[in-house]
Amino acid sequence: MAEPIQVNNEKCTGCGLCGKSCPFAVITVVDKKAKIGDGCTLCSACVQVCPAEAITIERKAVKIELGAYKDVWVIAEVAEGCTKGVSFELLGKATELATETKQHVCAVLIGHNVKGYVDVLAENGAEKVYIADNPNLEKYTTDAYSNVISGMMSRFKPNIVLFPATKQGRDLAPRIAATLDLGLTADCTALAIKDGMLLQTRPAFGGNIMADILCPYSRPQMATVRPNVMPKPEPRKGHKAEVIEVPVKIDPKSIRTHIRETIKTCTMGGKKIEESEVVVSGGRGACEENGFELLQQLADQFGAVVGASRVAIDMGKKPKSVQVGQSGITISPKLYIVCAVSGAIQHTVGMSSSKFTIAINSDPNATIFAYSQVGVVGDMFQIVPKLVDELKKRKGK
To answer: Is 278 inside any structural domain?
Structure first.
């Protein structure tokens, strides 16, 4: 039976780029020809860099042994010295899924000097933590991260792999799915187990319906999950996890992109909208006159962040980084004040997890009122200034 990975000796020039690109160091050059060792994980790194196109991988659609795939993996994200909150949300959901399937919850840490994050992941549900540590993984790049994680998935065979639907996760997960010829459900808002399989729920057709998706024939089952749609678990202080270190070798020349500069869109010390406990948002109606200036005055009374609907973003009133909705950010604040937003599902998908919502809209039949605990029918240009004045009075200003 032919091996899934093949080297065409007639094309191979023995340049050695494949060996340098292999994260798991299983490719050598013998007699000026590439040789693939037994530890190959079929991560495709060598295929991508071979200038002679001498290496090919054939991934046949064959029936696999589903029982060979175990555990629920969470691809953890860390940045600026802390673990992103969405990683904890996914660990909480992974714990439910693993309990249902009688498997283990595993976190995957990719980066450089990341062992310090193990304990916090363990306290939030991880029973095992896989670590791939290398200086060339300190900053995220699609090439390096996808090759390493693809190889780890081929080697350890997880049953379910969950990625945060962040900028990084939305870039990484499709690349891995394409590499390993797997299915992927993007931007899930709910997960459950049905007949032993992962039931993945996401908005479809512009958010007009919710689709339930199953993956019965291939493994692992992969999904990206929107931040702020699932509760964080209660930390288990002192809980420890088994640490599995995965040695990797990264040649900088195999990474085709290099980060020259990182530009942040939020002001120094400012809150990110997805992390703010209070959010004030405006829609089309707030784009008139000084609408967003009024909303900023209201937000200042709460120490809040001003968000916007998609139409307001498209009209250039606010940056994309504060868009609330299906194609923007999902938020889960304690208080959400939404002004002049009609309530299209494109927006409500991104705010429906808010603990308490106050809607201000001049249309008494606006859909947004169905998602609000308090609804005020009226013109925001009359109501918001009065609300700001009242808040200032109560603060004694």
So the answer is: yes
Are the CB atoms for 36 and 27 separated by under 8 Å?
yes
Structural domain that includes position 163: 66-251
- The model's pTM is 0.76
User: Are 371 and 343 within 8 A, CB to CB?
Assistant: yes
Amino acid 50 reads: C
Per-residue model confidence as pLDDT tens digits over 75-123 = 999 887 788 889 999 999 999 999 999 999 999 999 999 999 999 999 9
**Could you report the per-residue pLDDT of 249-268, keeping only the tens digit for each?**
888 877 888 788 777 655 44
Is residue 135 helix, strand or coil? helix
For residues 374 and 227, membership in a common domain is answered with: no
CB 97 within 8 A of CB 223: no
Q: What share of the chain is helix, strand, coil (3-state, %, to 5)?
A: 30, 25, 45
Inside any domain, residue 268: no
The contacts of residue 365 (CB under 8 Å, 6+ apart) are none
